[in-house]
Amino acid sequence: MASLDVRVLPVLSDNYVYLARDPETGECAVIDPAVAGPVLQAVDDLGWRLTQILCTHHHMDHIGGNLEVKQATGCRVVGARSDSGRIPGVDEMVDEGDTVAIGNREAKVFETPGHTSGHIAFWFADSNALFCGDTLFSLGCGRLFEGTPEQMWTSLRKLRELPDDTKVYCGHEYTNSNADFALSVDSGNAALKRRADEVVSLREAGRPTIPATLGEEKATNPFLRADDAGLGDAMGLDGQDPVAVFAEIRRRKDNF
Ligand code: ZN
Ligand code: FE
């Protein structure tokens, strides 16, 4: 079966914009066009035909290029119904469990509040691809600007249920600093140490650390491991419930 062809565009200081094309139909989406210029240039260089914009959340470094890309290509804009007032140019509004298609490739929509109240993620099961914006990062998660620890923990557990071979396409290249923090709370984790070394090598070579695989994140990302008793114990939080452990990991990261 054909899979999405995904291209990674680094823009601004540390954002990733993604182009995803269905090889069967030639339909192509851009996920979170922070800026229009590099997106239009890349589509032109590749000879791809942009048919839609998929938006994970309303922050400017994700939707900043919406209107210009829409105007230049005539593509339609897909965003969360609950956040439709904050997604420029939105044409198609989606909720939890809805399906979004790029040609013959279908994604399931997850509502993942926490970073923002209307944040959503797109999971293309047959391409093993998850576009999760600023909810899940490699070795980290988004800051809680509009949500509670409980909401974010629930959102992350939803994503954690996806298969291990899911490729995680997140909104930012934060992996190196996330690794430093993760090691500060989970220094005995051998898989984390290996991933941290790999991240340093990738960045020294000027390469993205994305996509990470979800299986690797489950083993190494402290924000996905708040219900792991070993991690709670290591943080001096023996016996506390996962939401409290999650909240404490997030608090320490905010002050790291
Ligand atoms: Zn954001
Ligand atoms: Fe962002």
Describe this entry's structure for a reader.
- This protein has helices spanning 36-46, 60-63, 66-73, 149-160, 175-185, 190-204, 214-220, 229-234, 242-254; strands spanning 5-11, 15-21, 27-31, 49-54, 76-80, 90-94, 99-102, 105-111, 120-124, 129-133, 136-137, 140-141, 167-170, 212-213.
- It is an alpha/beta fold and 256 residues long.
- The strands form three sheets. Strands 1-2-3-4-5-6 form a six-stranded mixed sheet, with helices on one face. Strands 7-8-9-10-13-14 form a six-stranded mixed sheet. A two-stranded antiparallel sheet has the order 11-12.
- The longest helix has 15 residues, at 190-204.
- It has one domain: Metallo-beta-lactamase, Chain A, CATH 3.60.15.
- The radius of gyration is 18 Å and the shape is globular.
Short description:
By secondary structure, the protein is an alpha/beta fold. The protein has a single domain, classed as Ribonuclease Z/Hydroxyacylglutathione hydrolase-like (Metallo-beta-lactamase, Chain A), CATH 3.60.15. The protein has nine helices and 14 strands.
Task: Lay out the secondary structure.
Blueprint: E1 5-11, E2 15-21, E3 27-31, H1 36-46, E4 49-54, H2 60-63, H3 66-73, E5 76-80, E6 90-94, E7 99-102, E8 105-111, E9 120-124, E10 129-133, E11 136-137, E12 140-141, H4 149-160, E13 167-170, H5 175-185, H6 190-204, E14 212-213, H7 214-220, H8 229-234, H9 242-254
Parallel strand pairs: 3-4, 4-5, 5-6, 10-13
Antiparallel strand pairs: 1-2, 2-3, 7-8, 8-9, 9-10, 11-12, 13-14
